[in-house]
Amino acid sequence: MFGESQLFWYKIVFMAELLLSESMFVNRLKRRRFFVLRILGSLFALGALAVFFPLFSWSYNAIYASLLFILFFVATLGAAAFCFREPFVNILFCGVAAYSVQHIAFQFYSFIVNIFGINDNAPIGIYGDTVTAYYNVFSGLVYFVSYAMIYWLMYIMFASRIEKNSDMRIRSISLLLLIGFTVLVCVVLNAIITYASYDDFNSVIMSCVEISIMISCVLSLSVQFGLLTNREMKTELESVYHLWHQEQKQFATSKANIDLINIKCHDLKHQIRKIGSTSAVSESAMREIEDAINIYDSAVKTGNESLDVILTEKSLLCSANEITFTVVADGGRLGFMNDVDLFTLFGNAIDNAVEAVLKLPAEKRIISLTTNENGELFSVNIRNFCLGNVTFSDGLPVTTKGDTDYHGFGMKSIKRIVEKYGGNMSVVTDGEVFNLNLLFDIGGFRL
Fold first, then answer.
1. Whose CA is closest to 83, among 135, 173, 158, 22?
2. What is the pLDDT of residues 351-398, one digit of tens each?
3. For a 10 Å CB count at each end of the chain, is N or C smaller?
4. pLDDT tens column, 152-203
5. Cβ neighbours of 50 (radius 10 Å)
6. Are strands 366-374 and 377-385 parallel, antiparallel or unpaired?
7. Nearest-5° angle of CA 147, CA 151, CA 152?
8. Is 352 exposed, middle or buried (0-12, 13-18, 19+ CB in 10 A)?
């Protein structure tokens, strides 16, 4: 079993090639706690799998070899999911891309060996049941240069496009699976052709096959990352559309706030004139003055300047609509979010709450925002009363407004931002109380 065949050694080399390729695509993904221990344990387990995976006298055929490579690929996906805190579809995206790159590099090396007659039949020999392929310093140099060149080129063209906190959950999952299936078909066909060429090796035919497989894998990668680009463009377009609506809404809110301040200032001037014309101030007049001044007492301090601006504006909006808005929050823990995401997330969440309580009687016009930290977990809860007839679809409340294209985007936008930072979002209704719960693992943002 050990060292008795060229395939025994190649399965170990293949695992190393695949792991190196995958490292190019997953290096920017969010890491789980104890990442170093996880990655070391995974490498040990995968190395053991490569060494001890059994080979029998009857296993030197295309089917067994293909299953071996596919099993190794699936094992690396499991290891990546164990080490990185990402949705599995992101892991699958990177894994499929990495397998494509490894296979392109293998085919390129085989093509160079065949076309220049370096170690005849060497690529075929790696699947053999004996150690017959002869390698020297020159052939080893060709191997390393071939793989290094292809890996570097594929990194520049594709892997470098994966950014930190990138969301690779493309909408067409079926197409991603089809791309993965295409790559696996190339692997199986390569194994079949390789074993079929033992008795009648033809370097021209093999070279044509290798070129065809390389082209297929490159096209698969192009389509795969084209889907990612299309998703990013669509998300950006939705964001622009949303911000356009938000600007309209912001203008209306700002105008309402200015009108409210003007009215309160007018009332305050009236009360001051009244005080000046009388020697005494009635209790009712004092209450009116206090009510007029209270409009300026809406500032919120959370420790995060950007969040303070958002919440202060929403507090002013709530005051204008006789809504009780309470905030007990440590905004400093949200420093890992950029200002645009903070504005969109909390702006949408509180606007939704305001819209809900405006339909209720005065005693139920209450909104609360609280945060809590427990170790490396940071939670945000936004609670308000509602009519109690909330309808859900895919875990999100369905808007009751006619403009579903826009108004349905609010909760989806919140969910997208939360998941962008590796968090989780849940919506729960308890009788007439609506709870929006956000949970973040801030351990990775303490650097």
1. 22
2. 889 988 998 998 999 999 999 998 889 999 999 998 766 666 555 666
3. C
4. 999 999 888 887 655 666 556 666 677 777 777 777 777 777 766 656 667 7
5. 21
6. antiparallel
7. 115
8. buried
